[in-house]
Amino acid sequence: MKKYFINQDGVSNKFWNVEIDDKTQKITFGKINTQGRETIKFFETAEECENETEKLISSKIKKGYVEIKEGENIPEKIALTDEESEELFFWSSIKKSNRHRNSHWSEYDIDEHLENLTELLSKSGKQKLIQFEKQLQENLNKLYTAEIAELSLILECDFKEENGQIVFDDYLSEDGFIYFRCWLLLQGKEFFDEITKDINAFINGKYGFNIADTWAEGLLYIADEAYSINHDNEDDSEISDAVAELSPEVIHFDSPERIMNREPKGGGELQKMYPKLVEEITNLKTEK
Prior knowledge:
Elements: E1 2-7, E2 14-21, E3 24-31, E4 37-42, H1 46-62, E5 66-68, H2 82-97, H3 110-121, H4 126-142, H5 146-156, E6 159-162, E7 165-168, H6 174-186, H7 189-197, H8 222-230, H9 238-246, H10 269-273, H11 275-287
Antiparallel strand pairs: 1-2, 1-5, 2-3, 3-4, 6-7
Helix pairs in contact: 2-3, 2-4, 3-8, 4-8, 4-9
């Protein structure tokens, strides 16, 4: 068996080829248009060799590799636009700094993630940090919707049962809603894309969360803190100030200019709008 794969997502432009012959597995990998490197592994049985190879192939596909036919021309890598590069840097930084992204949700710690992200960003230049801060503000604004506000109410507010209906306390603090949106961003791009389309994605079974800890205020200041590690940032806001100067079209996450798509619902309306979501979350909160 021989199989050929390429990954041209984002900045990637790599190949990964695998060949098995009885109990022998040979893998060749590297950047496209290079000879790459080769590894050979021997197994006790041909069945074990095949099973382990299938696991590797599945893992590569999850990471963005796609299969191509033998002899098929590899497409030319399309250069990213500046906007695509900025977005990629933002999401890849959040992903790389989450060392528990492949672990059970109970091992995840917000403070650890933020510390790792600060350390990672501190190795980037000022322009990269400005790009990160710009993306942060833009993504926080994308989450400034009634639906995300309603998710925050369901997850964070007290509730009571009246005549068989769940009724939520519908108080939503401005600061708390900002911190909640920061927490959502830390969960990564795949989750962000799904949750902005439908907040019911929160319970689709693909994700696990500690719903008792859904604030990540530290993300708001992380670009400036990362810059301060290697620079004299006297006012502690050089990066965020630079975004305001260089990209005035970006609405700051706590600007009064923000406009929500509609007024968020509360009280007993949330159960009518999101019955399954409310059922699962309130059951979890009751168990705690």
